[in-house]
Design brief:
By secondary structure, this protein is mainly β. Helices cover 7% and strands 53% of the residues. A hairpin with a 3-residue loop joins strand 16 and strand 17.
């Protein structure tokens, strides 16, 4: 009977064990942590925490999946497939990833390794240092939470951030909060950055400031390859140099070859010359200091007093810079002591000679095909235009036409040379042609649409004062047609007739301040005929070759530039001091510059209004 009872009890235990085993089978992919080595293994039955643990000491090694773990001292919990490792902890996964720490807490079921203390993760030339790192041996993903530093021993760069995630499978980091990249020649500040350590490429996924010795870049989207020094900037990025600002929707820059290309709403502002260049496509050659703008390009030139703007449009605009050695005025020599030796005098003279000149840079501009100019003082059209910064001279050719707003005059010839003064105001205009023609509407309300003052000569020079025509000099022989009249008692001007004059000498025309013709001076007595108003022969009304071409005159700046492109992105009232903007403030600066409303945006002291 007893034997039967023992048999039943034994069968019951076997049945219960089988049911337990079936109900608690290992999940798919489950693998036990294996002990590879230990110099000593003991049990502490009296410690309530470690009663179920094996205590391993001396050159301890574990294996789990494709990871090997090393330490000096460990607690291994076989019942829940986990371990705690201490002192000289190391995890090796694959051929290249190694993680070092003071302490490791590893769960074999979740495959999460929590490393604490002095943590160092190394792969190739990239080294991560932190004090708090979680690493998944399954997904090969690492996360740090309380600050980390990444050093690249190859390119000598350092990346710091508060939070970071590393994807070992694709060699990629995502840094978050107070991110800073320090390279040998650049610094990057942002709140979020993606960096691939294999391709050495930084992806900008948040408002970012990039600083170097030569420029500053603001962007919110794009990438920069630190190895081949190629950048792609999107979504209206900004580039600041010493004297220029630039923005565009898409910017590509090859720093190694010093070539850049930009697309859509390209805008370059020269802060020294107060000139802005626009276009939907631009190519920049930094070595040659050349920029080529196309796809409806135009330029804006702001006067020194910022009260007037001149607009220039063409099919293509080229901006480039020339250097020229400019001689200084010879310095005045102080009284020299007569007792000085001739040798000392020669040494002093040689030193002065070295300082007699220097190289200066001048900005030049070229425009090709369908050139149009619009300003408050004058307007013009031509096929091509050259602006020479050295002499502040503008050359228009061929067959240019200029109109003056002040006196309703028109100049036409084969080419025009316009001299600007220090204030960038028109000072003098020379018109060249076999027989250039100047014409204007007669002064007074009684002039009809068919009546024009005209003068034809071998060469025309017009002098301006405050952008208004002061006088025009015609080199003879000259032919003139102008309408004469008399001032009436009620201050009105009554037309009398037209004077036709032929002169073998020069002619000088003076204009009133309000723009009307004042007087004409002939160097020699001309042959002249005065026709009464009601008996002017039709064949005598105009000089040969005269054409009134006001229909070609730009009437407003919108004829040159589409209205939706007339509002520049550059801020003229504010200029931020980027040296005062820290990483957390970058997104506020970007939002302020673009007019984007952000919640709880505090006022940034770096936004200083220009005086």
């Amino acid at each position: 009977m007893a034997s039967v009872i023992r048999l039943i009890a034994s069968s019951s235990l076997l049945f219960i064990s089988a049911v337990f085993a079936l109900g608690f089978s290992a999940p798919p992919g489950y693998e036990e942590i294996r002990i590879l080595n230990a110099e000593d293994i003991t049990y502490d039955r009296y410690d309530p925490v470690l009663s179920d643990a094996q205590v391993l000491t001396g050159n301890v090694r574990f294996k789990h999946n494709n990871s090997t773990m090393y330490c000096d001292y460990a607690h291994f919990f076989s019942h829940n497939n986990s371990l705690n490792a201490y002192k000289r902890v190391k995890i090796v996964q694959g051929d290249s990833l190694k993680i070092f720490a003071d302490t490791l807490y590893y769960d074999g079921n979740t495959k999460i390794a929590r490393l604490r203390g002095k943590v160092i993760m190394r792969k190739g030339s990239t080294v991560l240092k932190t004090s708090y790192l979680d690493y998944s041996t399954a997904t090969q993903e690492a996360n740090y939470y309380n600050g980390g530093v990444i050093d690249n021993e190859k390119d000598k760069s350092t990346i710091t951030s508060v939070l970071g995630t590393y994807f070992n499978a694709v060699d990629e980091f995502i840094f978050t909060q107070n991110v800073q990249v320090l390279g040998e020649k650049y610094t990057i500040n942002t709140e979020k950055l993606k960096f691939n350590t294999a391709t050495k490429t930084a992806h900008f996924i948040a408002p970012t400031v990039i600083l170097s010795d030569s420029n500053r870049i603001l962007t919110a989207n794009g990438y920069y390859n630190t190895e081949n020094e190629f950048a792609k900037l999107l979504q209206g990025s900004w580039i600041y140099t010493k004297n220029q600002k630039m923005t565009a929707d898409f910017i590509f820059y090859d720093k190694r070859n010093q070539v850049g290309e930009a697309f859509n709403y390209v805008e370059v502002w020269d802060t020294v010359k107060n000139m802005t260049l626009f276009g939907d496509h631009a190519v920049f050659f930094q070595k040659e200091k050349l920029g080529i703008f196309s796809r409806k390009p135009y330029a804006m030139k702001l006067s020194d007093d910022r009260k007037d703007t001149m607009y220039l449009a063409a099919d293509t605009i080229r901006a480039f810079q020339d250097s020229l050695f400019v001689l200084h005025q010879k310095p005045e020599n102080p009284e020299e002591d007569k007792k000085k030796s001739k040798k000392k005098k020669k040494e002093k003279e040689s030193k002065e000679t070295l300082a007699l000149g220097e190289y200066k840079k001048f900005n030049n501009l070229q425009a090709f095909r369908s050139v149009k100019i619009f300003g408050s003082a004058f307007q013009g059209v031509a096929d091509s235009l050259n602006y020479i910064g050295q002499d502040s001279v503008m050359i228009m050719y061929p067959n240019p036409i200029l109109w003056s707003s002040s006196d309703r005059s028109q100049l036409q010839g084969d080419s025009v040379v316009m001299k600007l003064n220090a204030k960038q105001e028109v000072e003098k205009v020379d018109v060249f042609a076999p027989e250039p023609i100047s014409s204007s509407k007669p002064y007074g309300k009684q002039a009809t649409e068919e009546e024009f003052n005209q003068l034809k000569g071998k060469h025309i020079t017009a002098y301006f004062q405050e952008n208004k025509v002061q006088k025009i000099w015609y080199q003879g022989p000259s032919e003139v047609r102008y309408y004469i009249g008399e001032q009436q008692a009620d201050s009105t001007w009554e037309k009398v007739g037209m004077n036709k004059g032929l002169s073998a000498s020069d002619v000088l025309m003076h204009f009133q301040k309000e723009g009307g013709l004042d007087r004409i001076v002939f160097n020699k007595q001309p042959r002249a005929i005065v026709y009464p108003t009601d008996s002017i022969p039709e064949n005598e009304r105009y000089v040969e070759g005269f054409k009134w071409l006001e229909d070609k005159k730009p009437k407003s700046k919108t004829e040159l530039i589409p209205a939706h492109k007339l509002k520049p992105r550059m801020s003229e009232a504010y200029e931020p001091d980027l040296s005062e903007i820290s990483a957390p403030e970058v997104r506020y600066w970007i939002a302020w510059e673009r007019g984007i409303a952000l919640p709880n945006v505090r006022k940034n002291t770096a936004f200083k209004k220009k005086k």
